[in-house]
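Researcher: Please translate sequence to structure tokens.
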Amino acid sequence: MTQDKNGNDSTKVKVFLLAENRLLRETLVRLLEKKGGVLIAGVSRYTDSTIEEIMASGCSIVLMDSLATTRGTTLICDLREMAPQLGVILFGMDEDPDAFLRSAYLGVSGYVLKEASASEIVAAVLGVAREEAMWPPRLCMTLLRHLSQEYRTRSRISLLPGGSKYCLTHRQLELMRLVEKGLTNKEIAVNLNLSEFTVKNHLSRIMKELDAEDRHEAVEAIRAIGLFPTA
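Model: Translation complete:
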């Protein structure tokens, strides 16, 4: 058995378990440790210091119980910015196409339904560790249809004057419409369920893409392209 400097089996996948309910946390820890192949690197409920705990744990997978709260969504956004290599798995989820699509856009690697067994949760963890997407097949078809529709929409956008020069996502345009309305970064974060940190990063990328000096110049560039509705 190969061990790391702390005496842990380095062949096991290190998981940080994040769940609001204490009984659920304690039960899952016992079940996961019995299954083998998984090492619990940390356990927590949602707190202001959760992201620091995750980063310090040395985990490769974050196992979360839901996206029911804004805090959960914000946490995922921040993890994607700070540690894009981490796999994020949601468990106890409804077979809800809208929730699944939102999760996919957030970069979630695993989406495990409520009726899943402990063995299925472990299988999702091991699959994501192999860089596989562990999503329900039926919901994957929803994603394919959505991406197909978005691609057709984006193709139409590229035919607009100047449209082929830039590549802005639907989410970025949504954010810039709020900038156009004069909202602050904090107000945009609340509207889009993002952290201010993520909003700032989006703005930086958009300005770079448009070769704009500031947010106002970026708004003018997008308006010139024709992606904002005219008054």
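Researcher: Any highlights?
Model: Residues 178 and 188 are 6 Å apart (CA to CA).
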